[in-house]
């Protein structure tokens, strides 16, 4: 996968792209990043990338020319058509399902906005979709680009050490992930559930599934509104509701 990030503040990405899973993914040649300062594409003397909005109003608006030219330059030698993603609080809310969709793409281009917003021609004629990481406003799109990149890259085959890890993550199954325990079995009187020490893998998987359902009911009951419960899970949920009363 190729990921290009258009930003006015490229140094913000040095630490994030050079550590942890994103660094390992690049070393394994599963992904390559290009962080591009689109100010370099401005065709005016002072490399100005923003201007006052027509009709008046507060703030400055990003001009179309530098961003159009940057995207065109990054894609002129690309065979596949990239996803050009505008990072914007007005966009579709980012989810694990969206991360899974983007992980199937060959080339992603993130446009990090700043100031009051984008010239509408960027939105209508250049970007293929708009994404928001939540119902709040950031100073710019850089942090959102980091979040989405991390979420997507970890799903690429061969990036994580255990191929089952992303499959069992919270939200990947539609439910929150079950509790985890490790050694020691007894820590200050706080003990690991007996079933996890039993060695009975069928009982362990059943416990994990039920506890995943319990955690979702307690913490994110809204997720259950669109989740198709099996008959077994429906029975468990009734038991859980009684337990939690």
Task: Give the key terms.
alpha/beta; Alpha/beta knot; Trp Operon Repressor, Chain A; five-stranded parallel beta sheet; three-stranded mixed beta sheet; 37% helix; 18% strand; elongated
Describe the structure.
- With 245 residues, this protein is of the alpha/beta class.
- The chain has 2 domains: 2-153, Alpha/beta knot (3-Layer(aba) Sandwich); 173-244, Orthogonal Bundle (Trp Operon Repressor, Chain A).
- 37% of the residues lie in helices and 18% in strands.
- The strands form 3 sheets. Strands 2-1-6-5-8 form a 5-stranded parallel sheet, sandwiched between helices. It has a 3-stranded mixed sheet with strand order 3-4-7. Strands 9-10 form a two-stranded antiparallel sheet.
- Helix 9 (201-219) crosses helix 10.
- The protein is elongated.
- It starts with a strand and ends with a helix.
Provide a concise account of the structure shown.
With 245 residues, the protein is of the alpha/beta class.
Question: Topology, please?
Answer:
Layout (H helix, E strand, L loop, with lengths): L1 E6 L6 H4 L2 H8 L4 E6 L12 E2 L9 E2 L1 H12 L7 E11 L2 H7 L4 E6 L4 E2 L1 H6 L3 E4 L9 H12 L11 H4 L17 E2 L2 E2 L2 H4 L3 H19 L11 H14 L1
Parallel strand pairs: 1-2, 1-6, 4-7, 5-6, 5-8
Antiparallel strand pairs: 3-4, 9-10
Helix pairs in contact: 9-10
* Average residue pLDDT: 93
Structural class determined from secondary elements: alpha/beta
Following the backbone from N to C, one meets helices and strands in this order, namely EHHEEEHEHEEHEHHEEHHH
Question: What's the CATH architecture of the largest domain?
Answer: 3-Layer(aba) Sandwich
Rg: 23 Å
Biggest sheet statistics? 5 strands, parallel
What is the topology, as strand order, of the major beta sheet?
A: 2-1-6-5-8
Could you say what the CATH topology of the largest domain is called?
Alpha/beta knot
Task: Kindly state the percentage of residues in helix.
Answer: 25-40%
Quaternary status of these chains?
A: single chain
Q: How many independent structural domains? A: 2
């Amino acid at each position: 996968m190729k990921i290009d990030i258009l930003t006015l503040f490229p140094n913000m990405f040095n630490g994030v792209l050079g550590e942890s899973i994103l660094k390992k993914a690049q070393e394994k040649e599963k992904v390559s990043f290009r962080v591009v300062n689109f100010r370099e594409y401005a065709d005016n003397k002072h490399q100005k990338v923003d201007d006052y909005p027509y009709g008046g109003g507060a703030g400055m608006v990003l001009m179309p020319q530098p961003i159009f030219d940057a995207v065109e330059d990054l894609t002129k030698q690309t065979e596949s058509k990239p996803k050009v993603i505008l990072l914007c609080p007005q966009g579709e809310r980012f989810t694990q399902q969206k991360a899974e969709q983007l992980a199937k793409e060959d080339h992603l281009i993130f446009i990090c906005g700043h100031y009051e917003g984008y010239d509408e021609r960027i939105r209508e004629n250049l970007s293929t979709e708009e994404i928001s990481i939540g119902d709040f406003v950031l100073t710019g799109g850089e942090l959102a680009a980091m979040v989405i990149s991390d979420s997507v890259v970890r799903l690429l085959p061969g990036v994580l050490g255990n191929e089952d890890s992303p499959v069992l993550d919270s939200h990947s199954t539609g439910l929150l992930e079950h509790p985890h325990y490790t050694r020691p079995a007894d820590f200050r009187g706080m003990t690991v559930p007996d079933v996890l020490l039993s060695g009975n893998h069928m009982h362990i998987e059943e416990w994990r599934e039920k506890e995943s359902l319990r955690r979702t009911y307690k913490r994110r009951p809204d997720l259950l509104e669109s989740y198709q419960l099996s008959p077994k899970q429906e029975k468990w949920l009734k038991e859980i509701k009684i337990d939690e009363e």
